[in-house]
């Protein structure tokens, strides 16, 4: 199999069909062991393992690269296959079945902003669609073109320079293709940190975070990427747009706000100034067990509303705590962490938990177990898919007063839509704010081989309806892409959609940028 350019400076093969590094995927024997030891007792599976396909065979590309930029383009089938989908369940299962009906005709790796301009000009001239691609970790069909035109996947991973680190103003200038770890490494010698990165950290890019308005690894905030952006440089088919680098501005609606979350439909983000902060001198953490889930929810709300801002505040329901933190006592777990001179703050939060019936652990063992399970989770997910399970996540945010009903409705909808009504549904808070949580549900259910995507789409539709009916957003941080469009229409005012369409017509009059996403 051809090597695919890795996000780091080194070359390492990334999986073209599944998550992450190819050499970290579970092999057939490991999948079988997983089936025997962990699954058989509670999931009806037959134990067979869907094979990993050989190198993909694709139709020949419909485009010939322009001679002046020939070296930036490739039609290598493995690279085209790798850029066909993102990394959602439905992406992995389709790739495993060899269903690569609409791969990009070409993949382009620009090295400069000028290359981006030239690629957009050329695409307009030949009538090709252009889909910006950062790390390709979208879980909402954000990097998958579903139209008929020939198309180019514009892979920005070679725009990978971390520029000036501005120690005076605590900011860094960074190109959009830089991956999270590379950015953090560049900040370490300056004693600085971004203190914000998505959980797909290793494989997602700065441009991807900005274009999707990713939410960070840390649970409370400021966790929205918007707060970290000082200024942007965006290339649109009509020319570049830049914003002014200032700490704040009341000069009308913000330029950055238009492009943050625009998912590659209005322009290609090529560079950003991001706000950074001093690396914390101190960290403290604990986990708190709660026999009553509702009490745990109330404790999280009380912590946030008391003005405490934990850097980690993840509430795992009892099933999530069992599967991912090894907690077999049937209790929920709150993983709590603070940064900075933190001991009194942690003690305050623990006191609030005790008032709600929580007991703090004497060691932070749960945190370590959970973190290890969490980092391995996408590889395990791919193995479970090969064993015939549907494993997928759904996330939202709602106000505290809506949470109980939304939580119950999502679980009921997933179970009712699952085959034979057998589904494990777990919930954790990835983020929590003074006015509400961001619940993140994991749904595991057996699939009929070959019908996985159709079954999942039914579950997803049922769950999305339940979210909408209970006042939740269709996405807190996974973005809209193509998969969330029907429910976006329910929550976004039509007049505002018209405003966005007008912006699209102005910046991208021929509609070449990521057609079908977000609108
Ligand atoms: C296992 C897993 C864990 C995840 N965990 C998190 C999490 O903790 N928090 C979170 O927020 N998300 C998470 N996600 C979702 C995803 O990782 C994020 O949306 C991430 O920000 C995408 O970054 P990327 O570089 O991979 O972007 P891509 O997937 O390449 O692109 C995403 C979208 O942005 C557009 N885009 C990409 N780069 C640019 C650019 N430079 N200019 C304009 N448009 C661009 C693309 O066209 C596409 O619409 C997770 C996904 C997976 C599979």
Automatic annotation (TrEMBL):
<dbReference type="InterPro" id="IPR016164">
    <property type="entry name" value="FAD-linked_Oxase-like_C"/>
</dbReference>
<dbReference type="Pfam" id="PF01565">
    <property type="entry name" value="FAD_binding_4"/>
</dbReference>
<dbReference type="InterPro" id="IPR016171">
    <property type="entry name" value="Vanillyl_alc_oxidase_C-sub2"/>
</dbReference>
<feature type="domain" description="FAD-binding PCMH-type">
    <location>
        <begin position="100"/>
        <end position="279"/>
    </location>
</feature>
<keyword id="KW-0285">Flavoprotein</keyword>
<dbReference type="InterPro" id="IPR016169">
    <property type="entry name" value="FAD-bd_PCMH_sub2"/>
</dbReference>
<dbReference type="InterPro" id="IPR004113">
    <property type="entry name" value="FAD-bd_oxidored_4_C"/>
</dbReference>
<dbReference type="InterPro" id="IPR036318">
    <property type="entry name" value="FAD-bd_PCMH-like_sf"/>
</dbReference>
<keyword id="KW-0274">FAD</keyword>
<dbReference type="Pfam" id="PF02913">
    <property type="entry name" value="FAD-oxidase_C"/>
</dbReference>
<comment type="similarity">
    <text>Belongs to the FAD-binding oxidoreductase/transferase type 4 family.</text>
</comment>
<dbReference type="InterPro" id="IPR025650">
    <property type="entry name" value="Alkyl-DHAP_Synthase"/>
</dbReference>
<protein>
    <submittedName>
        <fullName>FAD-binding oxidoreductase</fullName>
    </submittedName>
</protein>
<dbReference type="InterPro" id="IPR016166">
    <property type="entry name" value="FAD-bd_PCMH"/>
</dbReference>
<dbReference type="InterPro" id="IPR006094">
    <property type="entry name" value="Oxid_FAD_bind_N"/>
</dbReference>
